[in-house]
From TrEMBL:
Keyword Cell division: no
Gene that produces this protein: Slc27a3_0
Protein name, UniProt field: Long-chain-fatty-acid--CoA ligase
UniProt keyword terms in alphabetical order: Ligase, Lipid metabolism
SUPFAM superfamilies linked: Acetyl-CoA synthetase-like (SSF56801)
Length: 249
């Protein structure tokens, strides 16, 4: 859909040896790589391990373009190690394989793709609480603090993918799909709070909301209006190497 915006400057890009990849059926001008054609022609058999296994876990796994809050959008290098670490995201906030995660964030950003999708894949049968305790989510039981295991079985969890966030449809979606966990950016919660009040807004199974950028006033209004939902606010950057979790509220 965005190729039309690039096409006028395509000659100058090609002069700078920049290759343009497009996911779509085309046809496209010469020199443009139609990724869908390559995917259709690719074999379904796995390549040998020495082809796809990284030599160093700190090598670049993928590039994710930032939103450009401090300048123009730029490609941030995400290593194999960082990608794998995202498997533990939902475990760190207390989710379990019995949860149903609602995800309406764009998958071309780290929050939606790595924390959201990869995080769902990495969820274990039981969730780790904020202080290292092992939480039995369905039974409401919390065991004493336990050191994180060296390895454990990742069973994954159900992820409800919404193509585009809709504040007016959100609670209906939650009830219809049995949603228990919601991944947000701060503005999504503000959109929900700004919606006209409707009957049954507290009639849902949502127990946990996790994300970034939630303002204190919206935080308070969200809980007051929609019920006792645990909120875990996080802070991190795509190109950063430190992430903060706020477990206090």
């Amino acid at each position: 859909d965005l190729f039309a915006a690039v096409e006028p400057i395509l000659p100058s890009l090609q002069e700078d040896n920049i290759v343009v990849w497009v996911l779509g059926s085309g046809p496209y001008p010469p020199g443009v790589v139609a990724l869908q054609e390559l995917l259709d022609a690719a074999s379904e058999e796995l390549e040998p391990e020495d082809v796809w296994q990284p030599e160093d876990m700190n090598d670049t796994c993928l590039y994710i373009f930032t939103s450009g809050t401090t300048g123009l959008p730029k490609a941030a290098c995400v290593s194999h190690l960082k990608s794998i670490m995202c498997l533990s995201f939902y475990d760190l906030v207390g989710a379990s394989s019995r949860d149903v995660v609602y995800l309406a964030l764009p998958l071309y950003h780290m929050a939606g793709s790595l924390l959201g999708i990869v995080g769902c894949i990495g969820i274990g049968e039981q969730g780790w609480g904020p202080h290292g305790e092992l939480s039995n989510i369905s039974g409401g039981m919390t065991l004493p603090p336990t050191p994180l295991p060296q390895s454990r079985l990742s069973t994954g969890a159900t992820c409800v993918l919404k193509e585009k966030f809709s504040a007016s449809q959100f609670w209906d979606d939650c009830r219809a799909e049995g949603v228990t966990v919601f991944q947000y950016i701060g503005e999504l919660c503000r959109y929900l709070v700004n919606q006209p009040q409707r009957p049954g807004e507290r009639e849902h199974g949502l127990r946990l909301a996790v994300g970034s950028g939630l303002r204190p006033d919206v935080w308070r209004s969200f809980l007051k209006r929609f019920g006792a939902i645990r909120i875990v606010e996080t802070y991190g950057m795509t190109e950063g190497n430190v992430t903060l979790f706020n477990y206090t509220a």
